[in-house]
Amino acid sequence: MFKEKRDVVGLIGFPVTHSLSPVIHNAAIRELGLHARYEVHEVRRGEVGEYLALQPDRFLGTNVTIPHKREVIESMRDLSPTARATGAVNTVIVKSDSSGQRYLYGDNTDVAGFLAPLQSHEVARPRIENGRVVILGAGGAARAVAYAVQEFTPDRITIVARSPAKGERLVEELQTIASSSQSLSSPQFVVEPFDSSRLSSIVAASDLIVNATPIGLTPLGHITPLPDVAFRDSHVVYDLVYRPRQTRLLRDATRAGALAIDGVEMLLAQAAASFVQWFGQEMPLDVVREALDDALSAES
Question: Which fold has domain 8-108+267-299?
Fold first, then answer.
């Protein structure tokens, strides 16, 4: 039974019990003294439309995670340009039109969340601009990453996929998006399987490497998606996994002197981009980061 409160935001997906989003958002809510709370609701496939139909009278909005990021689009009256381009919504905002009618607006803050750490590191842009990007994975996270990195006008984006057919479908979607947008670059897209004999040399010759797969996630933090790659100090290596915070992939990159970025930074940035749309206030990141560090430390 869902509680009828307008001062509630939350997360829907299946499963969601592992999520750290309540830690992040409730820490911010407490710090700012807001009369609100962040809840998680496990919503199964086929129940999303019914659940969201109830939201305008009860919620400020909700985050959306797997497996619903595409399905929720059907329930939105309007989408942000980023959500429309990526074909995925991870943030729903309840808005009011000129007549006072409340409606659902879908956004995708994964793109802004992914870009934020790259924009904050001074050395990142010079290393990857007009360069070569390797994205491990061909799912929804990889799609958002591939869309986002075009800000850096890459020369080539290589999608490394277990299923080449899935990788090719993603490339077709990305090419369609790029061709219809004047603001995006038109890089060369390449698909490589994980077992490609050329993978090590392709990664070694790239500038930005992003792991958009769950490989390395706890309890398999000792596993890396790139066991045979020799990183160099000019690489930027970005792992979207945040449990553990320092994956083997990042440890290997750090030992080589590369710039290593962990998934916590993206997690915080995408959460902050959602928070400000719900409450009209910036998320107090220092307080939130401390709460998140405590939660992750308690797990280890």
Answer: Rossmann fold (3.40.50)
Domains of the chain by residue range: 8-108+267-299, 111-261
Per the CB < 8 A criterion, the answer to whether 51 and 41 are in contact is: yes
Q: Give the pLDDT confidence of 128-152 residue by residue, as tens digits.
A: 999 999 999 998 889 999 999 999 9
Q: Are 94 and 168 in contact (CB under 8 A)?
A: no
DSSP H/E element including 293: helix 285-299
Is residue 166 annotated as a catalytic residue, yes or no?
Answer: no
Q: Which candidate in 3, 5, 69, 166 is catalytic?
A: 69
> Measured between alpha carbons, how far is 60 from 39 in angstroms, rounded to an integer?
12
Rounded Cα–Cα distance for residues 24 and 26 (Å) = 6
Residue with tokens 């959460």: 271
Any idea which fold 111-261 has?
Answer: Rossmann fold (3.40.50)
Question: Global pTM?
Answer: 0.90
Q: Are 130 and 117 in contact (CB under 8 A)?
A: no
